[in-house]
Amino acid sequence: MSSNIYVEAQMLIRKPVEDVFQAFINPEVTTNFWFTKSTGKLEEGKKVTWEWEMYGVKSDVQVHTIIPNQLIKTEWGDPAVQVDYEFKEMEKGTLVVIKSYGFTETGEDLLKLINDNTGGFTTVLDGCKAYLEHGINLRLIEDKFPQK
């Protein structure tokens, strides 16, 4: 049974909506601020694998819906949750809202997941903003949980 709890992180990125949307679709861009490898671009109905080599972690991502420059609906993780990426054209750029939901955990496990999702997606958006606006890879994901 999944709960009706969701996690939301958002950030205004001062770039056109087309550029920001492509940053999440195209792994050649996304690898500069999030995962390190992908088996391909996000396409509706397809499954790709994202990898974070520095942590030895992979995740299969099922792409359910893509509305160009507006919405990407995915499912991924273990156990799998829904993760939506919404893009809204604004006067000063593009508002990106990431929502994750469909959690099956309860109690302390759910609280930990909410904390991890909130922090993780905030870090992704911070890295995306730095990369798209300033061309800087801050290595945020790599440095979030240093191994040594």
From TrEMBL:
A Pfam family that this protein carries is: AHSA1
Which Gene3D superfamilies does the record match to this protein?
3.30.530.20
Q: Where is the Activator of Hsp90 ATPase homologue 1/2-like C-terminal domain?
A: 16-133
Quote the SUPFAM superfamilies the UniProt record gives. Bet v1-like
Instruction: Write out the similarity annotation.
Output: Belongs to the AHA1 family.
| Name assigned to this protein | SRPBCC family protein
Q: What species does this protein belong to? A: Chryseobacterium endalhagicum
